[in-house]
């Protein structure tokens, strides 16, 4: 399991946008959870970190490995 800190989410629409973006990243086996209050996303798999960050940024949010 990998955890990423996500900045910029303000509502459930944001959560769903991040979930969809992460699910499309090659190597992500499963999006475990995207938590609005904690500002984090947990995923299973072995994606490239840069690909995860780029996918989240493409949706308008910032991400970094936690």
How would you characterize the overall build of this protein?
The chain has a single domain, classed as Alpha-Beta Plaits, CATH 3.30.70.100. Strands 2-3-1-4 form a four-stranded antiparallel sheet. Helix content is about 35%, strand content about 35%. The chain is globular. It starts with a strand and ends with a strand. It has helices spanning about 10-25, 50-60, and strands at about 1-5, 30-35, 40-45, 60-65. It is α+β, with helices and mostly antiparallel strands and about 70 residues long. About 20% of the residues are buried.
> What percentage of residues falls in helices of 4 or more residues?
25-40%
Mean pLDDT: 97
* Sheet with the most strands, sense and barrel status: 4 strands, antiparallel
What structural class results from the helix and strand content?
alpha+beta
Shape: globular
State the helix count: 2
Rg is 10 Å
Give the SSE order as H and E letters. EHEEHE
Domain count, please report it. Answer: 1
CATH fold-level assignment: Alpha-Beta Plaits
Question: What would CATH call the class?
Answer: Alpha Beta
Report how far the terminal alpha carbons are from each other.
11 Å
Would you identify the CATH architecture?
A: 2-Layer Sandwich
| Largest sheet: spatial strand order | 2-3-1-4
């Amino acid at each position: 399991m990998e955890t990423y800190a996500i900045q910029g989410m303000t509502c459930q629409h944001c959560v769903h946008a991040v979930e969809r973006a992460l699910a499309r990243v090659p190597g992500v086996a499963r999006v475990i959870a995207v938590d609005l209050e904690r500002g984090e996303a947990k995923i299973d798999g072995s994606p490239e970190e840069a690909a995860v960050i780029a996918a989240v940024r493409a949706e308008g949010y910032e991400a970094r490995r936690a």
